[in-house]
Amino acid sequence: EPTVRTELMEQIPPIAIFLQESRPKFPTAFFEYLMPIVVRYLTDVNNQVRKAGQEALLILLEQDLVAQSDIENKVCPILLDLSAPDSDDEYKVEAVNIICKMASMLSRTTVERMLLPRFCELCSDGKLFQVRKICAANFGDICNAVGQEATERLLIPKFFELCSDSVWGMRKACAECFMAVSYATSPEVRRSKLSPLFINLISDSCRWVRQAAFQSLGPFISTFANPSSAGLYIREDGTLSIRPSTQDVNSNSCQLSNNINLTSSSTNAT
């Protein structure tokens, strides 16, 4: 029964955490018994079971419970098979979605060597616009996962393609993640390549694309600032934040110190 398999998947993460905490007693139980089940359920015939398997896998990765060898030898090959050009449409959409979510949890080397080539292929998938849209929506996360060199060499050309896609939803998704993509590139690439590309989006024929681009205009401009002087940086969740300057920190410290001194003087006076 699919409901039984779904329920089983939901219990895998807490069992894995228990086994991790009791490793001297159960040194290989997770790798021998549980991990193969998770991998197998990624290809289950029932979509609810697959969804539960994907969620369980992401929790295991987030908790750092999956060995690097299992990621490279068991998980990645399955996802590459499911996202292959001749794969079933539903499986392919699910696979690209989980590849994008996994990227931030894996090492840069693993992502660049095993998943990045397939991601680049999926950005140009002419059969399913849903696949291209997932790629566009998560483009900034992939850039952040692989770093500047791979972003400029492999991803920026794909980003240009997606920004010119015939489906307006794709162009809108690109406008929304423009800041994150820009942040992963050098100042020269921002100036010479991304700026003209952004002007195209802000002048797009679709008003939804233009609106998304205008909303991203300020964050995109902020990526041109020098982080050390402007104090701007990108958080792990992809949002722009401001780091207090040293002067502000010192000012607050002085203020705090003065308050303490005043309190102390007041206490002594009483």
TrEMBL record:
Keywords: Repeat. The keyword rRNA processing does not apply. HEAT repeats lie at residues 115-154. One of its GO terms (molecular function) is protein phosphatase regulator activity. SUPFAM superfamilies: ARM repeat (SSF48371). It comes from the Eukaryota. This is PP4R1 phosphatase. Gene3D superfamilies: Leucine-rich Repeat Variant. It comes from Urocolius indicus (Red-faced mousebird). One of its GO terms (cellular component) is cytoplasm. The keyword Repeat applies. InterPro entries: ARM-like, ARM-type_fold, HEAT, HEAT_type_2, PP2A_Regulatory_Subunit_A. It holds the Pfam family HEAT.
